[in-house]
Design goal:
Shape: elongated
Number of helices: 31
Number of strands: 24
Helix content: 40-55%
Length: 879
């Protein structure tokens, strides 16, 4: 083909050059226009950014509406390992991505909420994408942590609120301090909210958002850090070379070096040395692991956001709480640390509570968005202390919501002691009466266990509750008198004092065989026989004949008493002292058997007809000797020798009486009497089955000196701790040494104790109590407590509280307003009048004449033909 004409080629070149020139000119003009109208470009960019941000916010708000919440409640023995905590962190990081594909990154986070508002010392919640609920519901912590679905929390507005955002300061590649698991890393945070007061509206909440680190941002940051490290190394190399050259120049300019050069340049000395060659140092190779630190690897690297809010209805408390939390976060600081975001201008601080960051803080707080102003990259190992609830190594404060405050006169509360809070405030704490089923107090003599029991009993009495206080030493009665000397209590107080103080003491009366209250015959016989067996260590293997004889005699006498009561003659009832006459007096026995022949079953009548005549007189000694000892004591003879006794513990239970029983000692005779009283209490409580459960009045027996009481009736006391809860009869026992109690009592007592308390004592004696607490506190720690200090574990709302240290309530301090010392004598007279206590000589005379009254009564009822035939020879032997 022929080539184009030259003029056409020149024309085409001119056209192309013109187009390029025009394009360049247009670009220059556009740049000039944009430069002159830069605000239009900025406005367009701002509008575009704002529109995109609004769209992202709408999507983020929609995604945040589909969130779940889980509450984690640790057990008392929760003690996770580092591996379990790390696995939990991996779960949280994985769950943060369980969002729809369209969800913005700011919503792809899991939030840990640590909240203290007075309901619990620290609530631990996990909030995050709904798709992560199944993943987070099953924790690597096992059964030691209970995971439940949680409802949204709605807070009432407080008068004063402060906000703060914490960011990581220091080298971005450095790690936070490695905090050990013991003590718990959460301890500083819990201590910071320990003095929170719910009644003042105090609230403190910490929110930690966790999300996976963006890969492209992380790569860019690594390139930046590596470049900075290389530049730094080059600068160091250049600086070292400069100093090296300066050192070399200084040496060459020195006089010694110049002299050396002159000597070396002399003829015959060889060639000159010349100038020294200086080799500059070479920059060292930058190791990525050293330069990048914790950012060197992608695995288990997360981005976090830490927000804190404190509120209160009292001015200044929220700010003080925030300062406490800020100090608590300092514990995690090392080469990297948590620092509060903001600026300080003199006394003012501009932070999350002020423009321009407050609105962003509120949005992130309310919606759970993770948008930290700085990367805040951390490895999961650095967050070990925050990835789990409080462990057993954490010392939790006792709040009013955990342990209620005692209110005088409130029948729902039972006083326990004085609790000193972390802030130094003291308050009287209590447990709920319906949950305090059995209580045990141990400790050395004079440690304050009886004083604590007295304070509790007095508070219960003023609240309208019924009780019986059994004290073999009687010291508790004069101690309690001034605080019970109130007119509204006087009709409910009765004193059963068997100590026989004074020249002619006044004594009440009780007939264990009495039937004037309509008790079932078999229950009365069983109670007395069991009391004998318990006090004398009888059983079917060691004393079968003695048990049979006693049971047969009691059956006859109780039948006589039932007949007398039905005949309207309760004053003719037999007492326990008529057992001797029934076994040794043939005439009385014939009359008694004849009078009640129709009330005895066939087997009992057959025993008296066939077996009794074959027994030798020596067989009765084991039965009669204890009764003879009771009769030899004028006080016990007067107390037990009355036909119609006043003491009726079942009536006291149902009428909310306050009964003080002082048996009078711990000898063999006293133990038998104590066994009779204890067995009667057990019988009376079990008899409440005839009353609907919702109509049973709560009643509280207090047993001081359990060692003395259980020595008389171990099986009876053990049965009380096992059975009486069903009948709303709640036992409180005090003893110096738990190991000295009989094994059945000790096992039943510790097994069923709702409240377990101990004062100081020897380590060997205390070890049995601290062992129930897992030796936390240790016996060494308890043994060194001050007087009147107690360690107590209690049940509140079905949960065990403690053991915590309480100061025992001292009557003169706790109930100072209730002391009425001038009315003590009047109350004591009223207590004896309510117990119908009479002079000892009068009761002794009546008891001595009772056998004749009973004999006359049965003689009237016994027709000659109705007498039960017995062996005449046996009667003659007794006569």
């Amino acid at each position: 083909m022929d080539s184009a004409p030259p003029h056409l080629t020149e024309l085409a070149g001119d056209t192309a050059a013109g187009q390029v020139l025009a394009l360049v000119t247009g670009l220059v003009d556009a740049a000039n226009w944009l430069f002159d109208h830069w605000y239009l470009l900025a406005l367009a960019i701002a509008v575009g950014w704002r529109g995109g941000e609004l769209a992202v916010r709408r999507l983020a708000a929609k995604a945040s509406a589909e969130r779940m919440a889980l509450e984690l409640v640790p057990g008392r023995h929760f003690d996770p390992s580092l591996e379990e905590i790390f696995r939990r962190g991996v779960q949280l990081a994985r769950a943060s991505t369980a969002m729809p594909w369209w969800a913005p990154r700011r919503t792809k986070a899991v939030q840990i909420r640590l909240r203290a508002d007075g309901s619990t010392p620290l609530r631990y919640r996990i909030e995050g994408p709904a798709g992560g609920e199944r993943l987070l519901s099953i924790t690597p912590f096992g059964p030691d942590v209970t995971v439940t679905s949680a409802r949204p929390i709605v807070d009432e507005p407080r008068a004063h609120t402060v906000r703060a955002e914490f960011i990581l300061r220091g080298r971005p590649t450095a790690s936070l301090r490695e905090v050990p698991l013991s003590p718990d890393p959460l301890q500083p945070l819990i201590d910071a909210v320990a003095d929170l007061r719910a009644e003042l509206g105090d609230l403190a909440e910490i929110r930690l958002d966790i999300q996976r680190a963006p890969k492209w941002v992380l790569r860019a940051r690594r390139l930046q850090l590596m470049g900075a490290a290389r530049r730094s190394e080059r600068r160091e190399a250049q600086r070292a070379a400069r100093w090296l050259r300066q050192d070399a120049s200084g040496i060459e300019d020195s006089l010694s070096w110049q002299l050396q050069q002159l000597l070396s340049d002399r003829p015959g000395s060889g060639s000159g040395a010349g100038r020294r060659l200086v080799m500059p140092p070479v920059p060292r190779r930058v190791e990525p692991a050293v330069a990048l630190g914790k950012l060197a690897e992608d695995d288990h690297l997360v981005r976090v956001q830490l927000l804190v809010m404190c509120a209160s209805n009292t001015e200044g408390r929220a700010q003080a709480r925030l300062a406490q939390l800020q100090a608590a976060f300092d514990v995690f600081g090392g080469r990297s640390r948590w620092a509060m975001r903001g600026w300080r201008l003199g006394p003012w601080r501009i932070g999350a509570d002020h423009w321009p960051t407050q609105r962003g803080f509120e949005r992130r707080w309310n919606l759970g968005h993770c948008q930290p102003p700085r990367p805040n990259w951390v490895r999961l190992e650095e967050l070990t202390g925050l990835l789990k609830p409080p462990t057993l190594h954490c010392r939790l404060p006792v709040l009013a919501s955990d342990l209620p405050t005692f209110e005088f006169g409130n029948p729902d509360l039972l006083l326990q002691g004085v609790y000193r809070g972390p802030d130094g405030r003291e308050r009287l704490v209590a447990t709920y009466a319906e949950e305090t089923l059995f209580e045990v107090g141990t400790g050395k003599a004079g440690g304050g266990k009886t004083e604590r029991a007295l304070a509790q009993a007095i508070g219960w009495a003023h609240a309208g509750g019924g009780l019986v206080f059994v004290d073999p030493h009687r010291d508790s009665w004069p101690r309690a008198l001034p605080f019970l000397a109130h007119d509204h209590l006087a009709p409910r107080i009765a004193l059963i004092d068997l100590n026989g103080l004074g020249p002619n003491p006044r004594v009440s009366s009780w007939n264990p065989l009495g039937m004037e209250h309509g008790q079932p015959v078999h229950e009365v016989v069983e109670a007395i026989a069991d009391a004998y067996a318990s006090a004398l260590a009888w059983d079917d293997a060691t004393a079968p004949r003695a048990l049979t004889i006693l049971t047969a005699a009691l059956t006859v006498l109780v039948a006589v008493n039932e007949t007398a009561c039905q005949a309207g003659r309760p004053e003719d009832q037999a007492t326990i002292f008529q057992v001797r006459a029934l076994l040794t007096d043939g005439v009385f026995r014939k009359a008694a058997l004849g009078a009640v022949a129709g009330r005895l079953d066939e087997e009992t009548r057959a025993w008296w007809q066939s077996v009794f005549p074959t027994l030798s007189p020596d067989a009765f000694a084991v039965v009669l000797n204890p009764i003879a000892r009771l009769a030899a004591n004028p006080v016990t003879r007067a107390f037990l020798g009355q036909p119609a006794g006043v003491y009726n513990i079942r009536a006291a239970m149902d009428s909310r009486m306050i009964v003080w029983v002082c048996p009078g000692g711990n000898g063999p005779t006293d133990r038998l009497l104590t066994a009779l009283l204890a067995r009667d209490l057990l019988r009376a409580a079990r008899a409440r089955r005839d009353t609907p459960e919702d109509k049973r009045v709560p009643f509280r027996p207090y047993f001081d000196e359990l060692i003395t009481l259980t020595g008389a009736a171990p099986e009876t006391i053990a049965s009380m701790f096992e059975d009486l809860r069903k009948y709303k009869c709640h036992i409180h026992g005090m003893t110096q040494l738990l190991p000295r109690l009989p094994t059945p009592v000790r096992l039943s007592l510790v097994q069923n104790a709702s409240t377990l308390a101990t004062t100081a004592g020897s380590q060997s004696a205390i070890a049995s109590i601290t062992a129930e607490w897992g030796d936390n506190p240790s016996p060494e720690r308890v043994a060194t407590m001050e007087r009147f200090e107690h360690y107590v574990s209690m049940n509140v709302h079905g949960h065990r509280i403690g053991p915590i240290q309480l100061r025992g309530p001292h009557l003169d301090n706790v109930f100072a307003a209730q002391a009425r010392p001038r009315q003590v004598e009047a109350l004591e007279r009223a207590a004896q009048a309510n117990a119908q206590a009479l002079p000892l000589d009068q009761l002794t005379d009546r008891a001595a004449k009772q056998l004749a009254r009973v004999a006359a009564f049965v003689a009237e009822l016994t027709p000659p033909a109705a007498a039960v035939p017995v062996s005449i020879e046996k009667d003659q032997e007794f006569e």
